[in-house]
Amino acid sequence: ERAKYEGVSYLAFSETLATAMFGRYELLKDLREAILNNDIVAYFQPKVSLKDNTLIGFEALARWTHKNGSSIPPDQFIVLAENSGLIDKLDQQMLQQSCKAINTLKSMGIHVPISVNVAGNEIIRPNYFDQFKALLEEEDVPNEMIELEITESQFIKEKSTINKHLSVLKTLGVRVNIDDFGTGYSSLAYLSTLSVSTIKIDHSFVWRMEESEKDWQILKMIIELGNSLGLNVIAEGIETEQQKEHLLALGCGDGQGYLFAKPMSLEDTINWIQSGL
Ligand code: C2E
Ligand code: MG
Ligand code: MG
Ligand code: MG
């Protein structure tokens, strides 16, 4: 699983694998078909408060099982969807499945928000809000229950449009998370002028903090600055108790990672909640 995130070698591997197994065109054709059939499923990964492990929300992550039975990782098919105009439809489906999950959990007495990942190009589309509002109304979910995750690198493109659209989202009560924070080389000072509520610190800092003094210092600075700007700070990719303890000591309030749970189907999510977290 971890090899997935180790950059170039994985990408090189997956590119070859995808090409060897299907060919790029085949894969795109199958992806289009999977999206049209609503075959892509939202899995949910818990977000917890680090001091007491209480559940504070979930993140929806897309999962695709190819019709030949193999599971294709998002790092492969999301890019494909983005480059072929399919991402809007896919993200709408993940949003809809998240709305349904919110209502299922609500019926069990669990009221927590779910965040969905959105491609930066989507939220700058003029009709994004209309679609968003219509879907939430149709599913009877209050705007406050959905959060959006947009990667840091998307914020630096189309600055003025992003800025305007983030303000609209804020007035709608939709919280925005800056995903993979620390990888986009943007300044937190600039980002703090935008209407965002949360920074999600990229897992690479969490994984390197114990080996690299430099990463430890950057992490410390991000957490302190985030806290002092009144932003929620959440760390991604927490795998060990020790990482969790370090993050707590540095003042990071919230976290997500395999230490708590992997992304799960809705059914497993419900079992996980019922088994007492
Ligand atoms: P992301 O939004 O930064 O999601 C976090 C990724 O880290 C997820 O990978 C998650 O499964 C993984 N992860 C979480 N905790 C741990 C941990 O403790 N250890 C390790 N090794 N990994 C952990 P995933 O599901 O493969 O997704 C990869 C990326 O694909 C996401 O990064 C997101 O950028 C994109 N993505 C996934 N689903 C969607 C979607 O529905 N729409 C869009 N636009 N993008 C999506
Ligand atoms: Mg995310
Ligand atoms: Mg991330
Ligand atoms: Mg990511």
Automatic annotation (TrEMBL):
Lineage top rank: taxon: Bacteria
Domain EAL: 24-277
Protein name: EAL domain-containing protein
Shown segment, full-protein numbering: 457 to 733 of 733
